[in-house]
């Protein structure tokens, strides 16, 4: 008989064009699973799917064990009963833990286990001699996923039936679960030994009484507000319609049942419904009631969307608008801003409950086609189904003139939103404008040096795109200053300065942002750079005065702190006190000298900038 081909399993490698590895299961090809020849596997019949059991799973197999000369020493088939064990926990020989972990459901394989992967030098008298290499024909019947969810044995989950999809619930998600709970004595070592060769009996099989159960129709709650911490921990690892058996220690069952010391709470647990809760924007939450699996397409700005919507008060007691079907174009302010933000996050045929707690986002703009019944100053709840939508052109579908037109349009919308005090919308528009302008690449224009037909030259397009980027990043910085998002404001101002290092407004705004971040020395550098170019700029002079005040206050705090430290170390020695007085005097002289150079009044509110340098730049 010819020797089988042995394919070692690669332990560490890099994929490249010259090396390809075939991991497809092949019948009749022997693989060295352990890498040292200790455990080899030859597939006799391929299994189903792609999943294999994991460490801790309870696997069920049929097997026939023989010596190399063919002598049979054990067989579950002869006994007429499956064999079950916990994988990877040392409950069986090392070769089995290694070999079975590589198998698929229904797979039939031959495992060859060297003595050090079997019963070693001692063997297992009288059937297995010392230092014996063994062969096992193993069929993987099934397995149950058994997981220590919390890592301390407090929540043990055994999957009874797999769920659907790939998503696990988050703390904000709403779930509907059915459960039946019973008390069960904590297993002893004797119980574990007795159950080693047969399926352990559950509390239900033992006929133990029910101590808690879900109401008819299931229990409804948010994952983060589950009745007990054990339920929350288990749910975070589950999928829609998954069923599991939970074993909870007393501290993880508190809130569902009182579990005496020395007992566990065994729970038959099913995740019947999962309603994901998203937050499209602050003040807007969306609870998905139903959706189509595998549908990931969503509306973009400029899409024509058709929805069926009912508008109610936040408490649900008042119907503001009865159910009706409306069609509108996104990003054209035809519905309340919060509703539009929610629609942007939806997929076709998705049904959701959208709650808008921020009255500004529930307010209907002039000429709105939906949401007009919401009273001023009130939030709203929309029961909405996205029936269909037709997307607008994506940037990659546009030519360069269209990209520039999109950037300019976004800039104008951002300016209008800023002037109306709608800062979040303004930031989104400026961000989209910069993105559109950035998509106009010089390398694309070089392929068509004459430019688009009847359009500007490539050089002119690039110049206009640069102007849009500068203006929008500068305005975006102004938005973030008003929202006190100092880091983002500094980032956007820096982007302007990368294009135009002497831009006065960008230096002014970055200095403001750095002052907000407490980066006073860096702010001083920006102010000095600006004053070098415009020494009489009133805004920079005023900001410089404010900076000096802020620096003086910081010096006072530091002097006070150091004074306490010196007092603690020197117990109030005269030399320490003298040093403190000298330091404070020096700080006072520095601040006075700085004040003497600043004669202009302090004014840093961007809204009061002179007309020659408006906060929001006009359209290019």
UniProtKB/TrEMBL annotation:
Bias (Low complexity) ranges: 577-620
InterPro entries: FKBP4/5/8-like (IPR050754), PPIase_dom_sf (IPR046357), PPIase_FKBP_dom (IPR001179), TPR-like_helical_dom_sf (IPR011990), TPR_rpt (IPR019734)
E.C. designation(s): 5.2.1.8
One Pfam family per UniProt: FKBP_C
Enzyme class: isomerase
Record bears the keyword Repeat: yes
Lineage top rank: taxon: Eukaryota
Organism field: Tetradesmus obliquus (Green alga)
Reaction(s) catalysed (UniProt annotation): [protein]-peptidylproline (omega=180) = [protein]-peptidylproline (omega=0)
Keywords: Isomerase, Repeat, Rotamase, TPR repeat
GO molecular function ontology, one term from the record: peptidyl-prolyl cis-trans isomerase activity
Gene3D superfamilies: 3.10.50.40, Tetratricopeptide repeat domain (1.25.40.10)
Segments of this protein annotated with the region Disordered: 572-620
Name of the protein in its database record: peptidylprolyl isomerase
Residue ranges of domain PPIase FKBP-type in the record: 56-144, 302-390
Signal peptide positions on this chain: none
């Amino acid at each position: 008989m010819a020797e089988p081909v042995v394919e070692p399993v690669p332990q560490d490698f890099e994929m490249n064009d010259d090396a390809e590895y075939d991991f497809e299961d092949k019948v009749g090809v022997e693989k060295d699973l352990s890498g040292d020849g200790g455990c080899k596997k030859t597939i006799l019949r391929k299994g189903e799917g792609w999943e294999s059991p994991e460490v801790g799973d309870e696997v069920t197999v049929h097997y026939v064990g023989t010596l190399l000369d063919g002598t049979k020493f054990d067989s579950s088939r002869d006994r007429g009963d499956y064999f079950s064990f916990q994988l990877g926990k040392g409950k069986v020989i090392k070769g089995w833990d290694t070999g079975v972990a590589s198998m698929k459901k229904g797979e039939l394989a031959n495992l060859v286990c060297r003595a050090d992967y079997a019963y070693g030098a001692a063997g297992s008298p009288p059937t297995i001699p010392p230092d014996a290499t063994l062969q096992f024909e193993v069929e993987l019947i099934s397995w149950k996923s058994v997981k220590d969810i919390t890592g301390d044995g407090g929540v043990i989950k055994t999957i009874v039936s797999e769920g659907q999809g790939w998503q696990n619930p988050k703390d904000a998600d709403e779930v509907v679960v059915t459960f039946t709970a019973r008390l069960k004595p904590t297993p002893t070592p004797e119980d574990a030994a007795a159950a080693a060769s047969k399926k352990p009996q559950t509390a239900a099989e033992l006929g133990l009484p029910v101590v808690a159960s879900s109401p008819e129709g299931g229990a409804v709650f948010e994952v983060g507000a589950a009745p007990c911490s054990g339920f929350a921990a288990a749910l975070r690892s589950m999928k829609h319609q998954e069923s599991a058996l939970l074993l909870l220690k007393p501290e993880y069952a508190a809130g569902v049942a009182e579990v005496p010391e020395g007992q566990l709470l065994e729970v038959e647990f099913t995740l019947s419904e999962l309603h994901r809760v998203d937050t499209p924007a602050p003040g807007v939450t969306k609870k998905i009631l139903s959706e189509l699996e595998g549908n990931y397409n969503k509306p973009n700005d400029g899409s024509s969307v058709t929805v069926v919507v009912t508008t109610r008060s936040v408490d649900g007691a008042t119907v503001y608008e009865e159910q009706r079907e409306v069609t509108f174009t996104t990003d054209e302010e035809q519905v309340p801003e919060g509703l539009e933000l929610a629609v942007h996050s939806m997929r076709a045929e998705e049904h959701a409950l959208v709650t808008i707690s921020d009255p500004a986002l529930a307010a209907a703009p002039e000429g709105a086609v939906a949401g007009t019944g919401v009273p001023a100053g009130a939030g709203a709840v929309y029961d909405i189904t996205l029936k269909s939508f037709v997307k607008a052109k994506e940037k990659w579908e546009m030519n360069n003139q269209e990209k520039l037109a999109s950037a300019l349009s976004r800039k104008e919308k951002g300016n209008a939103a800023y002037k109306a005090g709608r800062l979040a919308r303004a930031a989104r528009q400026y961000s989209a404008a910069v993105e559109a302008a950035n998509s106009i690449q010089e390398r694309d224009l070089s392929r068509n040096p004459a430019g688009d037909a009847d359009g500007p030259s490539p050089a002119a397009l690039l110049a206009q795109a640069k102007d849009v980027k500068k203006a929008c990043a500068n305005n975006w910085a102004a938005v973030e200053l008003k929202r006190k998002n100092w880091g983002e404001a500094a980032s956007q101002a820096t982007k302007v300065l990368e294009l135009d290092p002497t831009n006065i407004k960008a230096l002014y705004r970055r200095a403001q942002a750095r002052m907000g971040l407490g980066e006073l020395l860096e702010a001083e550098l920006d102010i000095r750079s600006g004053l070098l170019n415009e020494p009489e700029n009133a805004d920079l002079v005023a900001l410089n005065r404010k900076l000096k005040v802020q620096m003086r206050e910081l010096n006072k705090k530091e002097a006070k702190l150091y004074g306490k430290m010196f007092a603690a170390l020197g117990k109030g020695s005269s030399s320490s006190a003298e040093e403190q007085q000298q330091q404070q005097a020096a700080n006072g002289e520095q601040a006075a000298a700085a004040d003497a150079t600043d004669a202009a009044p302090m004014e840093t509110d961007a809204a009061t900038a002179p007309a020659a340098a408006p906060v929001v730049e006009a359209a290019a």
